[in-house]
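Q:
My hope is that you can spare some time for a protein that puzzles me. I hope you can help me see how the letters and the tokens relate. Thank you; the sequence and its tokens follow:
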Amino acid sequence: MCTRLSARYGKAQAYCYGARGDGSAWLVAERGTVLRRYCETGEGEDELLTPGEPLPFERARRPELGLNPEWDWAQESDEDEEDWRTTEFDLAPEPARALGVSPLDIGPDTRARGTGVVAPTPYGVARSVTTGAYRI
């Protein structure tokens, strides 16, 4: 869905934030192409769900933890890898904020410009949620 929305609107992003300890994930697409997808759920093999180059936000966040911004999972110590994964587990609202707006920051005083849309997921569509994009 993000690739189709980004092809139409130029940019699209999707975020998953498990405020109950479910992890974090994000997907950033531009002009119909996925630039980055990140997933940290604490389950094995999350790295298989994380293609693309790290976003500038990710690179900037790593030095704050004392980690090298240019990382290679094969050369990271177990401790460094665990520090990063623990941080990323709850991080989805921050890249959302860095790239636009975090849904956690939207309130009655939020000013808007441009076109915001919310699109249903294939899961929602399969359960009879009206298809298409919704104007915010």
Q: What stands out?
A: The chain has five helices and five strands. The mean pLDDT is 79.
